C-alpha cells in the first residue's frame, strides 16, 4: 500500500485521517507544521503527500513550492475552503488535486489511488518513444524530454500530456480531461485542468504565453498539435 505523509495542523482531522488510512493498510506519517513535514520527507520517503492548505507558519502553498523544487512527488491538498482563491494558488504551485474538508476516508483513498494511477500509464500498444517537434515522449518509461533534456513532470502533468498526445489535433473539453486524467466523473473543477495546462506549458513551451504545443480553443477546450 502507498506510504502517505500527512501534514495537517488540526489534531482531530490529523488523527481521523491517519486512523482511516491505517485501517486500509497504509503506512502513515504525520506532521503538524510545514517545517516538520519537510523534515519528514527525506526520512520517510512517502509515495504521496496529503497537505493541508492553511498551516501555521509555512503554509501549504509554500510547502508545495518547496517540494516541487526537487521532487515530482504526488501532492493532494486538503482545504476547508473549496471555492477560495487559495485553491488556485495551490494548484499553480504544483498540487495534483485537492479535497475539501471534511472528507470521508473512502473519498481520500479514492483520490490517492487516482493520483497514483497517473504515474502508471500504460503505453497502450503505441510506439514507446514518440516525437512531437522538439518533444520526445517515452510512454513505456514515462519520461519526457525537450531537445534532448529531460523534463520533470508531476503525475497530473504527465497524464495530461500523455492523453493529449495520444490523439493529436483532437479537441478535448475540460470535462473530458477531468474524467480521464483526474477521474472526476461529475461536478469536476475546471480549475484543475486550467492550472495543470499552465504548469505544463511553462515546462514544454518556449513561450508559454504563445503556446506551440497545447492549443486553447475558447468555448471548447484543449488540443495538442505542434505548430
TrEMBL record:
<dbReference type="InterPro" id="IPR001789">
    <property type="entry name" value="Sig_transdc_resp-reg_receiver"/>
</dbReference>
<protein>
    <submittedName>
        <fullName>Response regulator transcription factor</fullName>
    </submittedName>
</protein>
<dbReference type="InterPro" id="IPR001867">
    <property type="entry name" value="OmpR/PhoB-type_DNA-bd"/>
</dbReference>
<keyword id="KW-0902">Two-component regulatory system</keyword>
<keyword id="KW-0804">Transcription</keyword>
<feature type="domain" description="OmpR/PhoB-type">
    <location>
        <begin position="126"/>
        <end position="226"/>
    </location>
</feature>
<keyword id="KW-0805">Transcription regulation</keyword>
<dbReference type="InterPro" id="IPR039420">
    <property type="entry name" value="WalR-like"/>
</dbReference>
<dbReference type="InterPro" id="IPR011006">
    <property type="entry name" value="CheY-like_superfamily"/>
</dbReference>
<dbReference type="Pfam" id="PF00072">
    <property type="entry name" value="Response_reg"/>
</dbReference>
<dbReference type="Pfam" id="PF00486">
    <property type="entry name" value="Trans_reg_C"/>
</dbReference>
<feature type="DNA-binding region" description="OmpR/PhoB-type">
    <location>
        <begin position="126"/>
        <end position="226"/>
    </location>
</feature>
<feature type="domain" description="Response regulatory">
    <location>
        <begin position="3"/>
        <end position="116"/>
    </location>
</feature>
<dbReference type="InterPro" id="IPR036388">
    <property type="entry name" value="WH-like_DNA-bd_sf"/>
</dbReference>
<feature type="modified residue" description="4-aspartylphosphate">
    <location>
        <position position="52"/>
    </location>
</feature>
<keyword id="KW-0597">Phosphoprotein</keyword>
<keyword id="KW-0238">DNA-binding</keyword>
Amino acid at each position: 500500500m502507498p506510504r502517505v505523509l500527512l501534514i495537517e495542523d488540526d489534531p482531530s482531522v490529523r488523527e481521523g485521517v491517519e486512523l482511516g488510512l491505517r485501517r486500509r493498510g497504509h503506512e502513515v506519517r504525520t506532521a503538524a507544521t510545514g517545517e516538520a513535514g519537510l523534515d519528514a520527507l527525506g526520512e520517510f520517503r512517502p509515495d504521496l503527500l496529503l497537505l493541508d492548505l492553511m498551516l501555521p507558519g509555512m503554509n501549504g502553498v509554500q510547502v508545495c513550492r518547496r517540494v516541487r523544487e526537487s521532487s515530482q512527488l504526488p501532492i493532494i491538498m486538503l482545504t476547508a475552503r473549496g471555492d477560495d482563491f487559495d485553491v488556485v494558488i495551490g494548484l499553480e504551485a504544483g498540487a495534483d488535486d485537492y479535497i475539501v474538508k471534511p472528507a470521508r476516508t473512502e473519498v481520500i483513498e479514492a483520490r490517492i489511488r487516482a493520483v497514483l494511477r497517473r504515474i502508471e500509464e500504460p503505453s497502450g500498444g503505441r510506439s514507446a518513444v514518440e516525437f512531437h517537434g522538439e518533444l520526445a515522449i517515452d510512454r513505456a518509461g514515462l519520461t519526457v524530454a525537450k531537445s534532448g533534456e529531460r523534463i520533470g513532470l508531476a503525475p497530473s502533468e504527465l497524464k495530461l500530456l500523455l492523453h493529449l498526445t495520444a490523439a493529436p489535433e483532437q479537441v478535448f473539453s475540460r470535462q473530458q480531461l477531468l474524467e480521464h486524467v483526474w477521474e472526476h466523473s461529475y461536478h469536476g473543477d475546471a480549475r484543475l485542468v486550467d492550472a495543470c495546462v499552465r504548469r505544463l506549458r511553462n515546462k514544454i513551451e518556449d513561450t508559454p504565453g504563445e503556446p506551440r504545443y497545447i492549443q486553447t480553443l475558447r468555448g471548447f477546450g484543449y488540443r495538442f498539435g505542434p505548430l
